[in-house]
Amino acid sequence: MKHFLGIGAIDDIHSWIREARDLKKDPAAFYDLGKNKTLGLLFFNNSLRTRMSTQKAAFNLGLNVLVMNVGQDGWSLEFEDNVIMNGESAEHIKEAAGVLGQYCDLIGVRAFAGLEDKEQDEKDRILNALATYCGVPVINMEGTLGHPLQALADAITIAEHKIVERPKVVLSWAPHPRALPHAVPHSFIRMTHQIDADLVITHPEGYELDPRVTQNTAIEYDQEKALEGADFVYVKNWSSYTQYGKILSQDSNWMMTREKLSAAYFMHCLPLRRNVVASGEVLEGNRSLVMQQANNRTYAVQLVLKKLLGS
Ligand code: CP
Question: What is the pTM of this model?
Answer without folding.
Answer: 0.98
